[in-house]
Design goal:
This protein is of the alpha+beta class. Helices cover about 30% and strands about 30% of the residues. It is built from 4 helices and 7 strands. The strands form 2 sheets. The protein has a 4-stranded mixed sheet, with helices on both faces. A 3-stranded antiparallel sheet has the order 3-2-7, with no helix packed on it. A hairpin with a 4-residue loop joins strand 2 and strand 3. Helix 1 packs antiparallel against helix 2.
């Protein structure tokens, strides 16, 4: 990808981060500052960290959310992944949701509903680094059958009201933002 493509991708990422709602302003400011300091923020090769896109997949008929048990991190998480140079972080989130769940007919809702910065622990030759995650609501068709890929060891639809105890604080914030958006859309 040429310099012009990288700059255009970063500008698109900047717009998506800027339009995300509702979010913690301090997180938005940190993400935008990171982009200013790292022209390679869309690439995994940026060792300090990189932009990612993730999807809160919700069955719109039940309000249940889909969690995947991440094989490497050994935690229940939403689908998501690396931008790999793509500044359209909504498209990244949707692509990752489709790849990781096998679901057909997913619908991306704009703008992003949450921003999160978290540390990915060192693993093998890869140092600890940040994921600057732009998170979107993605609607799944009713009674969708999940077919996970090798990145996950399991999946489950979670009722965010009765099973809140399963959700880590950052995931709980994402779920709450998604359900607010779902009720308002």
């Amino acid at each position: 990808m040429g310099r012009r493509g990288v700059n255009e991708g970063l500008e698109q990422a900047r717009r998506e981060i800027g339009s995300a709602h509702p979010v913690l302003e301090s997180v938005r400011e940190r993400m935008l500052a990171f982009i200013d300091q790292h022209e390679d923020a869309l690439l995994r090769s940026c060792l300090a960290g990189h932009l990612t896109g993730s999807a809160l997949v919700v069955d719109s008929s039940t309000g249940n959310v889909l969690l995947l048990h991440h094989a490497k991190l050994q935690r229940w998480l939403q689908p998501g992944g690396h931008a790999d140079g793509d500044g359209d972080l909504g498209a990244v989130a949707l692509r990752e949701a489709i790849e990781e769940t096998g679901l057909v007919g997913l619908e991306l809702v704009h703008p992003a509903i949450d921003l999160d910065i978290h540390v990915i622990p060192a693993r093998g030759d890869e140092p600890a680094h940040l994921h600057l995650d732009v998170r979107y609501l993605v609607l799944a068709p009713q009674a969708s059958a999940v077919v996970i890929n090798a990145e996950s060891t399991g999946s489950r639809w979670v009722n965010p009201v009765t099973e809140r105890h399963l959700l880590a604080p950052a995931l709980l914030r994402l779920v709450d933002a998604g359900l607010v958006r779902l009720r308002g859309s």
